[in-house]
Amino acid sequence: xxxxxxxxxxxxxxxxxxxxxxxxxxxxxxxxxxxxxxxxxxxxxxxxxxxxxxxxxxxxxxxxxxxxxxxxxxxxxxxxxxxxxxxxxxxxxxxxxxxxxxxxxxxxxxxxxxxxxxxxxxxxxxxxxxxxxxxxxxxxxxxxxxxxxxxxxxxxxxxxxxxxxxxxxxxxxxxxxxxxxxxxxxxxxxxxxxxxxxxxxxxxxxxxxxxxxxxxxxxxxxxxxxxxxxxxxxxxxxxxxxxxxxxxxxxxxxxxxxxxxxxxxxxxxxxxxxxxxxxxxxxxxxxxxxxxxxxxxxxxxxxxxxxxxxxxxxxxxxxxxxxxxxxxxxxxxxxxxxxxxxxxxxxxxxxxxxxxxxxxxxxxxxxxxxxxxxxxxxxxxxxxxxxxxxxxxxxxxxxxxxxxxxxxxxxxxxxxxxxxxxxxxxxxxxxxxxxxxxxxxxxxxxxxxxxxxxxxxxxxxxxxxxxxxxxxxxxxxxxxxxxxxxxxxxx
Length: 491
Prior knowledge:
Elements: H1 13-21, E1 34-35, E2 38-43, E3 48-52, H2 54-63, H3 91-98, H4 102-109, H5 111-115, H6 121-127, H7 136-152, E4 156-160, E5 168-173, E6 184-190, E7 194-201, H8 209-234, E8 243-247, H9 250-257, H10 274-280, E9 284-288, H11 305-315, E10 317-318, H12 323-330, H13 335-338, H14 369-372, H15 387-400, H16 409-470, H17 473-490
Helix pairs in contact: 8-9
């Protein structure tokens, strides 16, 4: 059975379906919502159409047991450069990689960048260089891609939403950054969103960045010509010439507009001068664009998270915005919740459920727990209780008519920790304020006591002086002096 989507004028659609039914067994499915592993959503008000592979990505995450992996923000580690030197050469590494489904997981992963995920195209094409003898580093890089997909599986590729339909191309190359000097040529074509993209390693060796960018321009020009022919067949006279193709290298742009002979470019193969003819007859227009705005840059090298997110949004990758999709994402199970599941074929006593931090052990003669469990689970408190307790709780629930209580232990512990932190913070602030006020009051009391003491001492001296004045103490000093003088006279 083959699935196929049809697009035609309402007037001719019945005739097309009748012609197909006359030769094939045909069953109509109505308006298209799901095709080839992609969910399709249309917004007629905004005139957009969105494609999502979230179900497919979730499926391969579960199949290769990456559904509990910790998420990351980039598809490739910026500090790791994959090469042939990292292949498994030691016997220990080869034995270790025999148990890793590298080729199977990579093959399943390749459908995502082909369908709706241009942001992982470069990473997947790089990993595809080592299918024969992958090493532990390559396996770690593959797990990194799955970790990125787990955190971004809700991305949708949205097309349309613009007033005028304009075919625009972006091409780039990593230049001579590779050790073998084989450049990676990439391009992206958009009509309100990415409709065609490619990231491919070239077979030739480039001696300069200009040559690498010029070769990338040639590949982008071939794709632009084909897209223009195809779009004119489907939508006659909608897409006008010239087709704008952006590049971030001024030398490559100059070569595409100048067919004169140059000593520095005489070694370039004549087939790469394909772009000359179409620039001359007005089919293509090669224009400069800075590197930070180059959409094809995400398909030539590993980028940091903020830059990748910016370019992915410009390409057309968006997140779910409807309430139903948000509810679907919120209801997805987390890692601790899955660990509470018990295998129905286990010989463990039902009255002693497995501990929180222990993973269930699978035997070869038993069905794997990951294959039996649904993709979306909601564990209630009733299901986590032992069997005897479950029955009593179920009977009491049926008697009282109360709903089952859904409790997540992680959320409970987080709320308890958060509440304790808030109480501790408030108590600390109150204690600090009390301490500061107490110290301030003590300091003020000490200051007032010192001030009163100085005032009393000054007042006491003046009183003594007055008393001495009243008691002729000043004269006493004089009499004393006179006494000294009298004594001297008598002597």
